[in-house]
From TrEMBL:
Domain Aspartate/ornithine carbamoyltransferase carbamoyl-P binding as annotated: residue spans: 9-159
Superkingdom to which the source organism belongs: Bacteria
Alphabetically ordered keywords of this record: Amino-acid biosynthesis, Arginine biosynthesis, Transferase
Source lineage: Bacteria, Pseudomonadati, Bacteroidota, Flavobacteriia, Flavobacteriales
Catalytic reaction list: N(2)-succinyl-L-ornithine + carbamoyl phosphate = N(2)-succinyl-L-citrulline + phosphate + H(+)
MF term (GO), any: N-acetylornithine carbamoyltransferase activity
Enzyme class: transferase
SUPFAM superfamilies: Aspartate/ornithine carbamoyltransferase (SSF53671)
Protein name: N-succinylornithine carbamoyltransferase
Database matches in Gene3D superfamilies: Aspartate/ornithine carbamoyltransferase
Amino acid sequence: MDNYITLADIDNLQELIEEALQLKKENTAAEIGKGKTLGMLFFNPSLRTRLSTEKAAKLLGMEVMVMNADKDGWALEFEDGAVMDSTKAEHIKEAAAVLSEYCDIIAVRAFPELKDKEKDEAELVIRGFKKYASVPVVNLESATGHPLQALTDAITISELKKTKKPKVVLTWAPHPKALPQSVPNSFAEIMQKSDVDFVIANPEGYDLNPEITQNVPVTHNQEEALKNADFVYVKNWSSYTAYGQQPKVKGSWTFNEHKLKITNNAKVMHCLPVRRNVVIADEVLDSYNSVVIQQAGNRTFAAQAVLRRLLEE
Ligand code: CP
């Protein structure tokens, strides 16, 4: 593995999942990262990604440097050929090259602005780092994807599934703020690479990018989708077609006990942070069916498996 920017960087998903589960079982420190440094740059907030990736790196013996790039760093210019006579003080060409002098792996979080679809889909930040860094680059959630979260999700389903081919439903849920499509995009991608019966339920106006969902069945009837579900992944996202907006939705899409009862006693997943009683009701989050804490715990082993692959190169 040269970088971990999209799920296409994984050559054998099943092998990587098994490696992560083995790391979880062993839960021991390793030496492979000794003398190596992970540099993490956050242009947006984080709890799980920041701490689980730091823990993963340390379990591999690495040193870790973290920077809140939005607050502490120079404002970066990502456009090639830009005349830098305004607020941007440093170009990605120098920033990525200099970071490569200090770090053996660079990891970056940069959310979309959700204003200009074309600009967000250009993934200027993560692709800028990939282009100008001379060390591997890891995506800690970019404008269109969250591949470390998706790997974690696949690991969690793999360790909890009771049937060879479980039914997995990704369902939209409400949220007061317009959120990116990164998490559902990557989840939809990784489920298409997995041996599952996968369905997406979302209100009209919230269909994800069809280039990502491809042939996955998409329904606007949440309750119909939930029938016989073994896993329900609840997540909000803003509209892809009316880009970044939140069109009005008919009916209630909050995932509550009534919806859970329609499923096959499903395990309920969410990437966190979750808005209680808006996205998922207390009665579900506090129930035996919720696996959100186990899922978040698995973030460490997903990151450890990925970082180890990058260190092995
Ligand atoms: N799920 C996730 O990426 O959590 P954080 O935003 O807290 O890192």
